[in-house]
């Protein structure tokens, strides 16, 4: 069993437990549930930088990245830096995140928030809406075409945008459908953790222009973004590069400023 299989196995058990404690009606009564969401795809289409900055404390591949910042410090720093949106890791066991991180982020900033999570059930999409997310992530590697369709359509009904993450041609081919807004190519193989921008380059031409193209993981330099832009990418998800510094907001500010030059 690889790390991705373990994460999904644990996530399915976690969702069953959560459902038994917090009913859907409680999620639907959240103050954020009726909130109008902010479109990340529109922001990326018109942005000159396209940065989606990530709040991530740790990961299975890197262990601890940074535990010293508060969520508010990080996300306000990202917003002030000019990020188009913020990705918030909510997985606890493997990434040290929580839904409270999403809630605190929503209370702190007014830009699009992505719930970065291993979504396997509609219940998690209701949680995303209730805790202030504007969009969700669906990972093609762990979902069937039917699951991608039903989960993405459910998200759209709630007014959430959908970023679908793929890693190879097979995942891309099974995933393309009208209920997606953005297609992200993960440059990190979730099974081996190998990182290469070639994944984004190889798949770019096969992603229809109807979708905003996002490149994820392994982007640590302005050169990498310059390399990917000609392939049609307008979104770039950056996490560890900012989080591993002494001040994530300042690191993002410097990066985005240099990118705009």
TrEMBL record:
The annotated pathway is: Amino-acid biosynthesis; L-tryptophan biosynthesis; L-tryptophan from chorismate: step 4/5
- The keyword Nucleotide-binding is assigned to this record: no
Q: Which gene encodes it?
A: trpC
The family note in this entry says: Belongs to the TrpC family.
InterPro entries membership? Aldolase_TIM (IPR013785), Indole-3-glycerol_P_synth (IPR045186), Indole-3-glycerol_P_synth_dom (IPR013798), RibuloseP-bd_barrel (IPR011060)
Instruction: Provide the species name.
Output: Flavobacterium frigidimaris
What is this protein's name? Indole-3-glycerol phosphate synthase
Q: Which SUPFAM superfamilies match?
A: Ribulose-phoshate binding barrel
Q: Which HAMAP family match?
A: IGPS_A (MF_00134_A), IGPS_B (MF_00134_B)
Name the EC number(s).
Answer: 4.1.1.48
Q: Reaction(s) catalyzed by this protein?
A: 1-(2-carboxyphenylamino)-1-deoxy-D-ribulose 5-phosphate + H(+) = (1S,2R)-1-C-(indol-3-yl)glycerol 3-phosphate + CO2 + H2O
Indole-3-glycerol phosphate synthase domain mapped to chain residues: 4-253
CDD domains membership: IGPS
Keywords from UniProt, A to Z, are: Amino-acid biosynthesis, Aromatic amino acid biosynthesis, Decarboxylase, Lyase, Tryptophan biosynthesis
């Amino acid at each position: 069993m690889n790390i991705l299989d373990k994460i999904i196995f644990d996530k399915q058990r976690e969702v069953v437990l959560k459902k038994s404690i917090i009913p859907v009606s409680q999620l639907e009564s959240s103050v954020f549930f009726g909130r109008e969401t902010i479109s990340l795809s529109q922001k990326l289409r018109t942005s000159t930088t396209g940065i989606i900055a990530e709040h991530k404390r740790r990961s299975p591949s890197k262990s601890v990245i940074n535990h010293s910042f508060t969520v508010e410090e990080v996300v306000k720093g990202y917003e002030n830096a000019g990020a188009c949106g913020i990705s918030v890791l909510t997985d606890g066991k493997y990434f040290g995140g929580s839904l409270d991180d999403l809630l605190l982020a929503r209370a702190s900033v007014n830009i699009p928030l992505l719930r970065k999570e291993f979504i396997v059930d509609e219940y998690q999409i209701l949680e995303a809406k209730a805790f202030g997310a504007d969009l969700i992530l669906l990972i093609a590697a762990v979902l069937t075409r039917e699951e991608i369709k039903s989960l993405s359509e459910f998200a759209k009904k709630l007014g959430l945008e959908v970023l679908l993450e793929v890693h190879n041609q097979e995942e891309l081919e099974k995933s393309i459908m009208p209920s997606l807004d953005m297609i992200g190519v993960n440059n990190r193989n979730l099974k081996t953790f190998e990182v290469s921008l070639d994944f984004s380059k190889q798949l770019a031409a096969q992603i229809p222009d109807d979708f905003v193209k996002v490149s994820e993981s392994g982007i640590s330099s302005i050169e990498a973004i310059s390399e990917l832009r000609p392939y049609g990418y307008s979104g770039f998800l950056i996490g560890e590069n900012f989080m591993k510094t002494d001040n994530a907001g300042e690191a993002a500010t410097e990066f985005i400023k240099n990118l705009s030059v």
